[in-house]
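During the reporting period the student researcher (J.K.) took over the structure-prediction task from the postdoctoral fellow and processed the backlog of single-chain submissions. One of the processed entries is reproduced below for the supervisory committee.
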Amino acid sequence: MTSSPKPSRKLLAIAGALSVVAGSFAAVPATFAANVSASVPGGNSQNSTEECRHIAVSATQYQGLPGQYQLAYSAATSSLYTSFSSGRPPILTGGVGTWNVASTPSLATVYQFPTTDFIARGATAPTGKQIESPYGIAYDEATGYVWVTQTRVNKVSVFDPATNKIIWSSAEGDVNHPREVRIDPSSGKVFVSGSGGISVFDTTLHALVKKIEFTDAKGESDIAMNMHVDSADGKLYVPSLSAGTVKVIDTKSYEVEKTIQLHKENAEATLNPSDVTIDKSLKEIYVSTQGDRKGTNSGITVYDLETGAYKKTIPFGNQALALASDEARDLLYVTDYGTGNVGVVDARTGTVVSQVSTGATSGANDVLVTADGSVYAVARSVEGASAIETDYTIDKTTGEYRTSSTEPKGKDNADSPITPGVMVKINTTVETAAKPAVQTASEELVKTYADGAKLYAVKDWTTGETLKLRGEGFKTQDGSKGSVLAVKLNKGRISAKEEPKFNGVEGNSAGVWAYIQADENGNFTAELPYPTTENSNLTENLKSGDKVSVFLLSGSIVEGDTPRGGEALSATVAEKKADTAETCAPAETTQVAATPSGVTTTYPAGTKLSLPDSEQPTPAPSESAKPEPTTPAPSESAKPEPTTPAPSESAKPEPSTPAPSESANSNEVVHEYKDGAKVYFPKTWDGQKLTFRGEGFKTLDGKGSVIAVKLNKGAISAKVEPKLAGVEGNSAGIWAYIKADENGNFTATIDRPTVANSNLTEELKTGDSVAIYLLSGSLTENDNVRGGVAAEYTFSVDNQAPAPKASESANAPVTNPSEAPSAPADSKEQVKENAKDQSKAPADSLKSDAQKKDSTAPKTSGSSSQNVTSSNNGSTASSSSKSSLANTGASGIVVAAGIGVLALVVGATVLVARRRKA
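J.K. obtained the following structure tokens:
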């Protein structure tokens, strides 16, 4: 945007010359002085560069999903995601819809979420089932994952649209009535608003990092509403509902940098701020407010982006809710929940230029602007719409999804029709035209001195504005430099309250209003401050028609100057005149009704989202669970008791499983990530340690990745928290860290979880599973994002094994044990987090040194059930894999970085990896 500069009220001198001004007015910088035009007598008129804008709006309506709440967008796939949850609890119809919006919007996929027990308010036992239905939604461009808030069940989940699998869900207590979710790609963090404030999660580790508490004026817990993330500047903007404020939070330190008290047009009515966005080009913050939900205080309030100072209010609707900014065109979009309309606002003028009727009579929940300026809005339902039949509804009793056009609602569980919401695409065009030039009063030659110096000025001195003077030929007698002029008004009878100085020195004459220094050519342009009772000795302000005599005096201020004096100008005080040029026509709010698209929305069969492998029920043994004939029989010590079922075949790869890569040996299974990185695990976890290796784990710029290892999502945690380069990580539940070498390769060994070295209360037993997660992306700059289950082992015999021989640990080589870093004990907060995670995990544990078995002791075996590429030969780790690591017998992880020595630990003893042999 271009605009005319505001008039300066400072005395101006040309080409770097010093300006000294009346009263407290400061000197004008030389950069401003250099803009002076060297015009001929007669002067110039100023042209405004402001634009007149004409904004045209149209809208197209599409039949949507029932109970739509929020929107998210994937630029990579041109997909729009809509969360939907129909009606009041229990939620029986809900999910996430994916729309292909590359051309005409079409519904491609509807994801069905797991169900859970529904306990009515005040009840103590379940009365039926409900969907863990989503409300807030966000798309992570880096991973391709979708984050949702499941408000009614106090949960946040992440699912992968590519695999139809929920890869993570938050632990109990992580969030409280979560509302909106926003992803910050710069910090690698996810912010979830809700009751009590903000919960911060890591995008890679899916761990709770921080809770930012919100309180109201009474110090009571408050609700954090919809948010705006400024990823470039590292700021998060969040309204606080009851407090009537907006908090500006640093996205890296999580400190509140500023709290802005929001403005009320009606001080007696409630404000209820709901959403926030910014426009950096206009340097403004915009906050939508629901007001009293009847129209009072409903609209948008505007604040200065830097200071937070209130600027203006833009009234709109009965209950202004969601807000989005098209910063490229300085437009705002705001939904009115009370009427179902969407307002289009010209942010430059602060006017509502259009009001779009979506077709819904209420419930306009969200609006989204894509990078190309496309705008989508959703409303929950349309009055009088026909019911739709889908399989997005569950049976209230069994929790099974069913095909239906009705669902039981209300106290009497009467069948109610399932009706669709509406989605609207808004098309906005902006046409601009330059304003006609504004004709201003022209300067004229007002005095020629005896030495030929000339003064040009405008004879009318507009109330409150500066008087512009321009001089030519004001030189000293020898012509070597510019004159210095003292300015007096009414012969000095109007004087400044604070006497001006020239070069820091007071003059010899009283009543000087200002000093002017001409340049070496004798030229200057100056602006004289308008005299008022505040900056002068006047007891009354000047009135229109008053005369002010302006005297320019030279000759006594610098040696050899040319003497000049007398009245230079008699200026007449005049009121400011309205511009005579045509201005932009005032914008009138146009009423736009969304036009039905004419396209029938087809509702696809629902796609069920599966739970993570570690949360799946263990399948019953079957005939297919028998080992292949070519598989060696287990040793006697590894056989289960007669009453124990044989291991399930799910612990071994199916015959159709692709062959391993060339680098995998016959005893390994391989898991491959999207970027091509591969990790190789032994088919069984024999004994107390597990050795595995990785290839191709590189950052985006080709360095070795840093990887966090979690067991069962971190529910199994080490008694002593591991450190990376001597520093604790940001996430609880890390079992160990791995640093790949410059080629992206590593070999690592981790301990089996036991009571002695973990947070578990009982040892592993038959049927217990340990899922291994390898997570990268936030531990080092420019790392590739990886996550999910890399391998899962189900243990097939009881853990009542003989104690290890005492000689085993005694014979293990240890390098410089005294140099091991000492890790501090868990903090109270850490203990709490571990306890939360443990509540959702199976009773798994890690074995300590004292419980290790020697080579003659029976081994406890776990088999990998991860869906990975493998062969069907062998069941133990390769000898080459084992021999690449020092058998120190200490608790921890050893990382072989291809060549050289590298050690990272869980416990307090450093383990040293020896050079791998080719």
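The committee noted the following: The chain has a mean pLDDT of 79.
J.K. will present the remaining backlog at the next meeting.
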